[in-house]
Amino acid sequence: MEILAFGVQADEKPMIEKAFEGHHDVRCLGVFLTEDTAPIAAGYEVISTSVNADLGHRVLQTLAAGGTQMIAQRSTGFNNIDLEVAERLGLTVARVSYYSPYSVAEFAWTLAMTVNRRIVRASNRTRDFDFRLDGLMGRDLRGRTVGVLGTGKIGEAFTRIAHGFGMNLLGWDVVENPACVGLGMQYVEKERLLAEADVVSLHVPLLPSTQRVIDAAALRAMKDDAILVNSSRGGLVDTEALVGELRKGRFTGVGLDVYEAEAGLFFLDKSLEAVADDTLARLVTFPNVVVTSHQAYYTVDAVSQIIDTTVQNVLDYTAGRRGENVLVPRASENAS
């Protein structure tokens, strides 16, 4: 059987092909799954998609009509998939429930340190042989307070790094993580965390309960000189409200690896086009803001785990097994 993989980056293509070798053939496409590209999947029983794929009801209907029966998403998040429609259409859906949490946690700290120590500004200056230090002063992290919203595997890894820096640890989650408590983390209400933290980092999944968890009120509650980092999902932050606060001169820095309207932008080359997203265009102009294109997970270690798990999900499907990563089982399983 030949698998069709959408949204494959150049670095990923040889890794995916090698992982499927000896099991199934795989056709890798650089284009992302959208309403326009969904017809390409006609005749493919199994497809694989990336995190920014459009798997709403229209796309799912097109896939089902073309003969697709199984979707293997190469990500942990699945807020882009209409699971109810997939189940109704008899589509099996699987995801990657786990990969290296260190990839994202380390990148979140990379963003925090980049804005704290003004690395982008310093690099741009030295390229022009401007070696002044004016405007490049940062702050020690030791002894300061970090607030971690979401203390699962990634939040825990992020917390361990913060503990290594010698920071005071505040956490917010529905369930306390004993490992974080063991590091000295104090779990508090979100309002207190925002008011006291010098660094606020988001590691919660995007759910109805966490949609824009950092809204206008939350932003106002943060310290004027705080650092905000989001390496989870763009929908956790009200970006327009964030731009409004930045225009007031607030925050030492903001590091964003995700953006709530990133679909159709991130992972693509838009350098020769006029970007119509006014909010994003304004956001990237602030000197204390760093925006990256959803690359926190993008390490050899994490991507290898994601691909290996995706291959296993496909093998489970073709063997008639229900793996641990299944979000929507086979129609026959639902019927039983």
From TrEMBL:
<protein>
    <submittedName>
        <fullName>2-hydroxyacid dehydrogenase</fullName>
        <ecNumber>1.1.1.28</ecNumber>
    </submittedName>
</protein>
<dbReference type="Pfam" id="PF00389">
    <property type="entry name" value="2-Hacid_dh"/>
</dbReference>
<dbReference type="InterPro" id="IPR029752">
    <property type="entry name" value="D-isomer_DH_CS1"/>
</dbReference>
<comment type="similarity">
    <text>Belongs to the D-isomer specific 2-hydroxyacid dehydrogenase family.</text>
</comment>
<dbReference type="GO" id="GO:0008720">
    <property type="term" value="F:D-lactate dehydrogenase (NAD+) activity"/>
</dbReference>
<keyword id="KW-0560">Oxidoreductase</keyword>
<dbReference type="Pfam" id="PF02826">
    <property type="entry name" value="2-Hacid_dh_C"/>
</dbReference>
<dbReference type="InterPro" id="IPR058205">
    <property type="entry name" value="D-LDH-like"/>
</dbReference>
<dbReference type="InterPro" id="IPR006139">
    <property type="entry name" value="D-isomer_2_OHA_DH_cat_dom"/>
</dbReference>
<dbReference type="InterPro" id="IPR036291">
    <property type="entry name" value="NAD(P)-bd_dom_sf"/>
</dbReference>
<dbReference type="InterPro" id="IPR029753">
    <property type="entry name" value="D-isomer_DH_CS"/>
</dbReference>
<keyword id="KW-0520">NAD</keyword>
<dbReference type="InterPro" id="IPR006140">
    <property type="entry name" value="D-isomer_DH_NAD-bd"/>
</dbReference>
<feature type="domain" description="D-isomer specific 2-hydroxyacid dehydrogenase catalytic">
    <location>
        <begin position="8"/>
        <end position="327"/>
    </location>
</feature>
<feature type="domain" description="D-isomer specific 2-hydroxyacid dehydrogenase NAD-binding">
    <location>
        <begin position="110"/>
        <end position="296"/>
    </location>
</feature>
